[in-house]
Amino acid sequence: MANVPEESPLGGPSARGAGSSAAAPTNNPSSAPHDGNLSEITRLIRGLNSEKTRKESLDLLCKNYLKVCDDLAILLWNSFGTMRALVEEVTSVYRPLSSTSLSERVAAQVCNAIALLQAVAAHPETRMPFVKAYIPVYLQAFLNTMNREKPYDSLRLSSLVVIGSLVKVDDAEVVDFLLVSQTFPSCLRCMEVGSTLSKTVATFIIHRILLNEQGLHYCLVPADRFFALNNALAIMVERLGEEEEGHRPRLLRNIISCYLRLSDNDRARAYFSGYIPPKLVDDTYIGILERDQVAHSNLQKLISKLKASQRSRTQPTGHLSGPL
C-alpha cells in the first residue's frame, strides 16, 4: 500500500500505493501524457469527484499513471474539486481510525488517495501550493494513531512518505511548516509504534529537519524535546535486531545520521560523549555497517567527534569505543 521514494536516502525501489519519486517537469516526450492517455487521465480525475466512481478512479490512476506521468501532479492540482475530493477520502476514515474496525480494503483505498497527494507533494510546481494550502495537516491523524495493526500502519507509512517527499528538497519554508504543524512529535510517535519501514521514513524526516538550522534549534530547545528524540533514537538502536531484516540497514543509517547532525551542537555533543547507546559503537551491528559505506563513514565521524569532545573535558563521564 505504501512505498518510499526511489533512490532516496530511504533507499529501495518504489512500490505501488504511496506515489513515486520526486518528479520534476520533464521535456522527455515518453513521460508526457499522449492525447489518448491525457483524455483517460482527465476522465479518471473527474471521476474522483463522485463517490460512485472514486474507488475505480483511484485504483486506475495509481496503477496505470502514477509512475509514468510526470505531470500528473499538475493535472491533479489544477483540476476543479480534485484536492477537495482527495481530502474528503482521507478524512472519511477518521472515525474508524479511533477504533479497531478499520479494514484493509478501506485502508487501501485511502492509501491510494494519499499516493496521489504524495505525487503533488513531490512535484516542484505543486509542492509549495500544497504546503500553503495546509493539506498535509489532514494526514496528522494517521501519524498519531498508536494502533500497530497493518491497515493503520499502511496509512501511517503512506502519510510519512508524503512528508518525506516534502523534506527531500532543502526548503526552510517547508521545515517551518512542519515545525508549526507539530510533525516532530508525530514522527517520534511513529518511531515508537510504526513498522520498520515507518520508523525508517520517520527517522529520515527527523534527519532532514535537523539539517536545517532552525530545525536543529527546535529539536534541542527546550531540553525536553532533545531528550525525547534521544530516547527514541536510543530505543531504536537497542531494538534494531528485532526489526525486519531487509530494512535494518536503512534504519541504522538514518539513526546514525541523526546522531551525527545532533553532535554538531556543543551541548548535545558533550552529552553524547558521556553516553551513547553501547550497541551503536560496539560490534553488535558490524555486519550491517560493513555493507553500508555511508553508515560506516558517518559512524566513524561521530565516534571521532565524541572522542575529541571527551578529551576536551577535564572529567570525562564515559568511554567510547568503535568497532571499525
UniProtKB/TrEMBL annotation:
Example GO biological process: negative regulation of translation
Composition skew (Low complexity), residue ranges: 8-33
A Pfam family it matches: Rcd1
Region of interest (Disordered), residue spans: 1-37
Membrane-spanning ranges: none
Record-level GO cellular component terms: CCR4-NOT core complex; P-body
Family from the record: Belongs to the CNOT9 family.
PANTHER family: CCR4-NOT TRANSCRIPTION COMPLEX SUBUNIT 9 (PTHR12262)
Protein name: Cell differentiation, Rcd1-like protein, putative
UniProt organism field: Theobroma cacao (Cacao)
